Amino acid sequence: MDDNVRFLQGNDVCVQAALYAGLEFFAGYPITPSTEIAENLAYHLPRQGGKFIQMEDEIASMCAIIGASLTGRKVMTATSGPGFSLMQESLGFAIMAEIPCVIVNVQRGGPSTGLPTGPSQGDVLQARWGTHGDHAIIVLTASNHQDVFRMTVDAFNLAETYRTPVILLLDEVIGHMREKVILPEKGAIPVVDRLRTSVKAGIDYHPYLPREDGRLPMSDFGGEHRYHVTGLFHDMWGFPTTNPKIVHGLLRHLNDKIKNNISDINRMKEYFIDDARTILISYGSSARSALHVVHNRRARGERIGLLELQTLWPFPYTQVAEKCEKARQIVVVEMNMGQVLLQVKRAVSRPERVMLANRIDGVFITPTDIRNILRLIHGKGV
Amino acid sequence: MENKTSILNLTEDEFVHPGNRACAGCGLGIVYRTALKALGKNTILVVPPSCLTVLQGLYPIAAAKLPCLNVTFASTGAAATGVRAAMRSLKKNDVNVVAFAGDGGTGDIGIQALSGACERGDDILYICYDNEAYMNTGVQRSGTTPQGVVTTTTPITGKLQSKKDVPSIVAAHKIPYLATASAAYPLDLYDKVKKAASIKGPRYIHVHTPCPPGWGFEPRYTIKVGKLAVETGLFALYEMENSQLRLTGPSKKMLGKPRLPVTDYFKSQHRFYSLGNDLINDLQAQVDHAWDAYVIHQ
Questions:
Q1: Residue B250 burial by CB count (10 A; 0-12/13-18/19+): exposed, middle or buried?
Q2: A56, B108: Cβ pair inside 8 Å?
Q3: Residue where one domain finishes, among candidates A265, A298, A328
Q4: Do A227 and A304 have their domain in common?
Q5: Which domains does chain B possess?
């Protein structure tokens, strides 16, 4: 067991977890603060029989993993803000063509080149709506390295289960911070493999005809079946169509396959929620500071709790509303101008209870920052 | 080149403040200082994210005295096009619009914008400082990384592919002026930038720029390493006007004479440590072949 204890950067943990989940192909382009993911995979992936390619930019990286995923490989790319912006068009393609892939976005300060080495959580809404058109997406995040491992494996599992791109939204603090992590034994975390079609060669295969449970069995591209993949609206054979009925059906399918499975996709952690008068809601690295505040104030007898979100999209509106029903104040702790705040306000009854504790200056939000804001909210002055 | 600049008649004007955030021994410091001397103060710079952004520094340790547009990574050529178009509208045609990008920003992510600007015939000067990898993010391979070089993303065998010949790609656009230069020969670079600034249309200068931490040599050997690349024939200095190639400076003097073996260059840096003998012989043969062609052309 002792062999499994490591002291690693968050980016390294992400690499270990991706290999655990069966990553076989990585294409990427170096960008701070995600570069270590590419560098580590350049070393580890070929040794495990996988393929690492450094591409000429992020557009190419995203397209390369789409191609590789179609041939049956588990794929991933890693980037940060500017690169994530470049990937948006192909991300939409992967959503439309229902191609499983994992995109790690280690967030840095933005917009634009922003703060390459400064922490921020400003890409929450971009992850949701960055690519054009009505679509659904799965976005996971994590606040500590043990969770980074779990969420990375889960990202692959959800991508394979729902045939969709999954975005793992880390941030600079998580990516670069070193902390202890216990690498799970093989089999300790379930790993979902690609659902492949049982249709034999030479028999008509419908790549875009969902089973009764909504899942689409895949056939490795270039293998036994020939089929068409397109970013245009397409029928069950994958051929382009403008038939309104089929267009309507496909768009509903793309959204419903995620919306109807929120209970399966949603991951959250709660600390001292049951009797809490003040509930902090946070995610990613800022949840670390929030948790520290909660422990600290609890020791002094304050009724305060933390709801840590690990699935940001689809946003767990119902679950958040239930947890926050009895709270007097709900304080969203995040490092942006209130992107999750908006969702929490939409989720809960009496949205006037919801307040923001944020920091947007490229400096990590500390427990002291949160405590000071809480004192202001409680009318105690700083 | 007809009127060669010497150290005695080199202008004393400086457009880079002394003291910047570049690494010790950075070849780019020489390239940047020399090129701006040649361009003069009537210049607008367009720079993508690169080591040059780091060299220019964070306020108040800012290095450049000239207006600089620090654009997104993939857009240097396009942004320079826009600046030039605006200058033309304002009837300020005497302003030098100069794109200054690294090898990644030129030959990998930026090649589309560069190719577009060259094809449109936009009146810009594009200077690429080629330090042969992504040094700003910590030494990842780029298109122009030479074959066999170990980087953080080619950690085991070294890069398998050969160096992308970006000047030849740009030359295929049949632009009026194209040159290669080296940080180790700043006066040659000065004359080429000066000449390029006097010509209209798209112009391109590709500058070989040694990088001590990225290439693995001591900072004091920047010039020595840069010169070795030229003296072994691995990097030839030439000018191309109207698609006519002409060797210049030290490379011109080497025509028909024996060159140093390429191993002299490879031994001077740590990044070549995994080169095998077969690949060395192959690279030597490639250099010999290229120089045979130069002899025929001249």
A1: middle
A2: yes
A3: A265
A4: no
A5: 27-297 (3.40.50.970)
Same domain (yes/no): A56, A162: yes
- For chain A, how many structural domains are there in total? 2
A138 shares its domain with A224: yes
CA distance B113 to chain A (A): 13
Residues of chain A with C-beta less than 8 angstroms from the C-beta of B115: none
Q: What is the pLDDT of residue B61?
A: 79
Shortest CA distance to A175 belongs to which of A27, A293, A37?
A37
Residues 6+ apart with CB under 8 A from B139: B133, B151, B152, B213, B214
Contact between A298 and A127 (Cβ < 8 Å):
no
- A204/A173 same-domain check: yes
Say yes or no: ipTM exceeds 0.90.
Answer: yes
pLDDT at B63 exceeding the cut of 80: no
Alpha-carbon distance of A272 to B142, in angstroms, equals 51
* A240 phi and psi angles, rounded to 5 deg: -60, 145
What pLDDT was estimated at residue A131?
97
Same domain, A117 and A244: yes
Q: Which residue has the tokens 């992308």?
A: B164
Domain finish residue from A248, A265, A282: A265
B106, closest residue in chain A (CA to CA): A56
Specify the pLDDT at position A1: 53
Binding-site residues on chain B for chain A (CB distance < 8 A): 49, 70, 72-74, 108-109, 111, 134, 137-138, 140-141, 143, 152-156
Are residue A192 and residue A220 in the same domain, yes or no? yes
Positions in chain A whose pLDDT score sits under 50: none
- pTM of structure: 0.94
Q: Provide the β-strand partners of residue A313.
A: A139
Nearest by CB: B140 against A54, A57, A112: A54
- A183 and A304 share a domain? no
Contacts with B149 (C-beta within 8 Å, 6 or more apart), sequence order: B132, B133, B141, B158, B159, B271, B272
State pLDDT tens for residues B262-291. Answer: 999 999 999 999 999 999 999 999 999 999
Q: Which residue of B70, B137, B156 is in closest CB contact with A30?
A: B137
* CATH code, A3: 3.40.50.970
The answer to whether residues B189 and B181 touch, using CB atoms and an 8 Å cutoff, is: yes
Compute and round to an integer the Cα radius of gyration of chain A: 21
Judge contact between A328 and A353, C-beta under 8 A. yes
Torsion of CA B198, B46, B174, B288, to 10 degrees: 100
A358 vs chain B: nearest CA distance in angstroms? 25
CATH number at residue A354: 3.40.50.920
Q: Are residues A346 and A282 in the same domain?
A: yes
Q: How far apart (Å, rounded) are the C-alpha atoms in residues B17 and A43?
A: 40
Torsion angle of alpha carbons B282, B288, B290, B292, nearest 10°?
-150
Q: Give chain B positions within 8 Å (CB) of A42.
A: 152-155
- Residues from chain A that touch B140, judged by Cβ atoms under 8 A, are 30, 35, 38-39, 54
The boundaries of the domain holding residue A304 are: 268-379
pLDDT per position as a tens digit, B79-88? 999 999 999 9
